[in-house]
Protein: Xaa-Pro aminopeptidase
Amino acid sequence: MVRPIRSGVQLQGESAGMQWKRFGSRALALAPMALAVAFAVPASANPHEARQRWEQLCQIRKDKLDLILPEAMRENGIDMWIVASREGHDDPNAVLLGGGYVGDIGYYVFTDRGAGRIERGTMGVGGAAFDQCPLYDLKASPAELRAFVEARNPKRIGINVASEIGTADGLSHSLHEKLRADLGADLSARLVSAEKLVSDFRSRHTATEIAAFTRAGEYSRTITERALSSEVITPGQTTTGDVAWWMMEQLHKEGLGNSFGIPSIYILGPGPRGPVSGDHVIQPGDLITMDWGVNFLTAFTDMKRMAYVLKAGENAPPPGVQRAFEKAVAIRQMILDVIKPGITAGEALAAVNRQVAQTPGLVLGRYDDPSADGKVSDVVIGSHSVGDLGHGSGPSMADFNPLRMTYTLRPSNFLSIELFLYTQVPEWGTRKIKIPLEDNGIVTERGLEWSYPVNSRILLVK
Structure:
């Protein structure tokens, strides 16, 4: 039998849509508050960090289901969303939906019954942590799924099968077959892909998610800028692998996850690139880059930094290298100039690509395959979605995400502003060196706003 339980609070007389209009727009206005949270005391110095993180995660989940889910379902014309998990095979969205323990098969079932909020039910999901953050109105047995769905009679039932987006493709073959068998032929005929719904649900964010994202960004850049300094690097002794593992130790101390595994640290010039995060010994005159991401709660970052190892008597990078960095910063501004809500990510990418192609001395290039013409600099732009993963589920200004390029940019989307410039520098001969830039921000009504202090210089190692 289905049993009602207490769940999130809804203000009397207001629909979920009304609440989103009132609170969702405030999420962006609250960005300064989120930045304040980002500068909070580090985990290693806070004896209550575990409890505070749990409370933050619970609030993120409540806000996500109260404010984001209704508009995501209604915009995509999905009356019911069924998310299935199996022990040892959680759906990628389970963390956002409350997690919990699934002994055999569990379902999270969301139904738009025409009221302000989305009805939320679970079947076969439980556990102390799940119960201590009450999110759901109903609990039932997985055996009751067909009767539950028949009683609500949805026209379109979204399930997590997808053509491109991995976070919307969590339904395994065997679970798909079982779901269809349990629902029967009539209800199974109403199953549709929830790919766009999942993208919208994951890529639109509340104030609590923005707070987590800014804190993840602050952890990312603070650890990175310490790593690419004399605190960690002793020229002639320290390897790129030593730096990477020092960064991993900082994640361990702070109780953080990461986006891509071991940080990618390698030499941009003047010599060969060498093994990534390997046994290359860092020498005076090396230009180093780092690419990585930090995970805090539900938020993931993706960023890069560069450092130059000073030679004896130097106090700055070679002038040609500095000019190349400044040229890349100018291209970054071109990207920011075209980002605005209401256009597709592909339209924004096309606009900045046109601007690059029309700029004397610049050409559109291919990643790590620059043209032989030393008189021009090659530009590659891959400004992708970020936040729910290092490479996120939402609108993406990157041709390696063709479906996501068709999605419209919306306030509260997170973007990683990523570009590569390949250009000659007089001090290093005819080989073009790569200048990579990447930092993360939030789409607002004003355009793209950084979520932490953006990279503005080449770091120096003495």
